[in-house]
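Record pair follows.
FIRST:
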Amino acid sequence: MFQLEKPTTVTITNANPRRELHGEEKVRAIDLTFSLTGENTLLDLIEPGLREHHYCNNALKAGQEALPDVVIPLPNLRFPKLPTTFKYGGSEKLRGFRFVWDYGIEEAHVDFTDVVLANLSYEVMEGGSCKIQATIQYNGDDLSDNDLYGELSGLASEGEISIKLLAPPELMVAKKGYRAGRTDTPQREQQEADVGDPGLFESDDDDDVLHPEGSPEAALANTQKPRVH
């Protein structure tokens, strides 16, 4: 899965501070969209083999010999008539990432856990370069710090920053209502919170609920029940 294990310079193209409603509580959240442009070997960060899928070397096709033990450059688009921009993973949002941003002050940096990665896409270009774009989403309690929230909100005007984005051992889909650092509310619990305890309306014997003991209906129901000998 896509990650930036080493400090990597990216460009923040959009910073969107906002509020989300969680139950009756409004919490701060932020979306940071970034881009990363470089050699098409960056595509291997998304998935191994993706570079070879999109690129080739026309010179080698024409008969030029490759040097031994040398990584073969692939500067040419393999399918130049196809679209050049691709969205990877569709609309899925994956949580559990760790986002680190060092903003230049010693021992002072952002280190968020349970961040969401969304809108991962890439663009391939003739000549051997490519561009990766993605959005980092976060709504953890760290955003209650006004100074930090302000710094993050202004990142689009900063241009390039250095970040790390580390994938979790196991990827998890971010469900609607996700909250950083908290487990998802099980669906059954959520339904019970919405409509009340269904046990209030259940009984082991429906006849006892519909027909009180001693009523003619209860007597008739008892005669219809099978007898156990």
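SECOND:
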Amino acid sequence: MQSAEVLQKELQCSKCGGQCTYQPAQQCLVCESCGTPVPLETDADEAASAEFPYDPNAVEADPKTVDASTVHHCETCGGDVVFVGRALSERCAYCDGPVVLREGDAAFQTMALIPFRVPQGDAQDYTEAWVKDRWAAPNDLSAIVAKGRVAGIYVPFWTFDSTEAIEYWASYRVRRGKRMVTRRTTGSMSTQFNDLLVPASPHVTPLIRDGILHDFDPRRLRPFRAGYIAGFAAEQHHQTVEDGLWSNKDDKDLLIRNRIKTQVGKSGVHNIFYDTKTTGIHYRRILLPVWIMHYEYQGKAKKVVVCGIDGRAYGERPFSTWKLGGLSALVSSVTIAIGVAWGAGGWF
């Protein structure tokens, strides 16, 4: 890990000595003083999507490195993020809580990242468009969200590949005359997982994960360079590969069960049991970009997450009670009208 002094020197403009930050619109570093662009492309960019093999029976050989920089520690959610170059915020990107500075901990080296492509202004536009499309939203919601705080952060993820040799047992239902009966079946199958995206931090909530999940393309990965996160917060990787595989256990189990249902090809498949032998594990430690819009509605903190790659938005929102009441009344009226019409028709 480079020292803070070396990193700071790399982010100084060669023309005027000013501070450079990464600008998503230009896809490069830009000097804040004179506007000079500094390209970040290298000949090694195409190799950034490389995956690394993992043997669960061997000792992990990926050591942590000591980070000499300071981190912003959130006193509310406990999140730790680092800034390369000048810190642009004194609030937590995850929960908007207050932060204090402390010494950085040892962390695993990030292998690659996908740089921000969506500028902050566009992220705010995507957020406001998402809010306007929300059904039964309060009338004042758009104005409140427009005043919210947007924070850009690179969040830690894993990607995992594996091959699964599965033996399974399951039940399914079939119709016999007028009743449904249960049958048992057993079988074997082989299936592969490719680039399963797994959060590498407890601070990456399902909302944040969903904000980035559908837009991952390994061809967009770039080798980790400090310049890409200059001006943004970033959470470091602290999980071992074994930790990452364990955190993916429940999602992988659901995917395997769904594939077994497809393999059985019957209706009402249930009581699924299986054994699987996992081989060919490959992984990446990566950072992915998200914008998080923090706002408060009637005293409750909420957030909208915008993918920093293509602007897809997901979020938390309140409902208008009077709009919901009006819709309920409308549905009831329509139901009653249909019932009356049906009853009247029954007399003829």
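COMMENT: Residues 215 and 309 are 7 Å apart (CA to CA).
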